[in-house]
Amino acid sequence: MPPSYTDDQIVYAVRDGLIIPAQLDRMAQGMIDLVNKTRAAMSIDNYRFDVDAHDEVAHQAAIESIVMLKNDDAILPLNADPVANPSATPQKIAVIGEFARTPRYQGGGSSHITPTKMTSFLDTLAERGIKADFAPGFTLDLEPADPALESEAVETAKNADVVLMFLGLPEAAESEGFDRDTLDMPAKQIALLEQVAAANQNVVVVLSNGSVVSVAPWAKNAKGILESWLLGQSGGPALADVIFGQVSPSGKLAQSIPLDISDDPSMLNWPGEEGHVDYGEGVFVGYRYYDTYGKVVDYPFGYGLSYATFEIADVAAAKTGANTATVTATVTNTSDVDAAETVQVYVAPGKADVARPKHELKGFTKVFLKAGESKTVTIDLDERAFAYWSEKYNDWHVEAGEYAIEVGVSSRDIADTVAVALDGDGKTQPLTEWSTYGEWEADPFGAKIVAAVAAAGEAGELTKLPDNAMMRMFLNPMPINSLPTLLGEGGKKIAQFMVDEYAKLAK
């Protein structure tokens, strides 16, 4: 394996349940760095950290993590918060789902920690004086549905203007200790959603889950969908801020949401056989696969709605070095709502010597804009933004040529595309008789020698290589020591000429 890894390869190692030495070293170094950062504070006698300040950091992180997937009929934000909307007639709200009372705020297994405080969504409603009727609807396990809980939830929904339905994955459904075999939420939750939607058409689903769940099978039963993930100790206040419009949602999907688990390329090799799993998708993981091969997804990587609307214009890319560039764009908030947008920059390589994805996210920045405000954002792309890991060179490699720079708000919502031409890093390998004719043509020295072969052929000094498309198909992948197979003794002389000339030029 290479001494430094792509992000995808790191993910593979974690998914495989193995910790390789390089990862273990990084984990240990991270712990050492954390200890060193806290050493100064912890050396102070009777030191106490500010619990409320830390909780506010958790609060802000949770706000920015929430992704709004759907908002039909502008069902969100709600106007039941007397502080946020003192002049509005409060809506009658029903809150359904045990997650609203018992939040999944963290993952399972070794990720368990003890929070300094824990504020659920129901706790937040009580603290803010927001009235709502609550029904748990289901239990947080994988047991069958409880008809009594379902009946209570449906009756609660009937009497509300809007239903906030908290659904998701219980801890028993996902953990670091086992693989999920489905993207679906528990069937009893979906069945309850269908019953509630039949009783009240104004349903907003709030999801709690550590990784992606299927949305398409039940989305028709909800006008609004918030993907809140596992929001940490201050998730309740964060959800309330978004739901009642004190802030606009600004989170973006870090995973594509497929229509079906079978659409994922890893399913060709999972769960493996005879105790072995091949991660055969290579670099074509997630959106890199879906976008390259034009697969339909439910929600694309980088997607996320807002209460505001934005426009991206004046996209430009300027070369700043042999293999670096700077991207600029003007972002305008075209609404009357203050909000943040995340500008995403994808790099699309041209013709390459290896299989590369259609495009890859290489930079992004979140910009907060007041209503009607415009700002110019700048995103720098270093050499690694254009590179791929080369097995041949055992190093990162940038090929010369033109690269497309795509600027947008998701992997499938690109506002504009510009181009930048790079010099390449000039990496070459010594040419030998085993190097292919195509490799000789692509090498700076080799290209001169190929031209010399052509000139010698025209002059009658060497056998003239046939110049047609069919012959080119044979020549390019062929080691030059195989030229005698096509050209007999003349091919042998050409190969020897090329090797001899290379020895002169490469001194």
Order of helices and strands: HHHEEHEHEHEEHEHEEEEEEEEEEHHHHH
Sheet bearing the most strands, described? 6 strands, mixed
Shape: elongated
Rg calculated over all Cα atoms: 29 Å
Would you give an account of this structure?
The protein is of the alpha/beta class and 507 residues long. 28% of the residues lie in helices and 22% in strands. The strands form 5 sheets. The protein has a 6-stranded mixed beta sheet with strand order 1-6-5-4-2-3, with helices on one face. The longest helix is centred in the N-terminal third of the chain and has 22 residues. The two termini are 32 Å apart.
How do you describe this structure in short?
The chain has 507 residues and is of the alpha/beta class. The chain contains 13 helices and 17 strands. The longest helix has 22 residues, at 21-42.
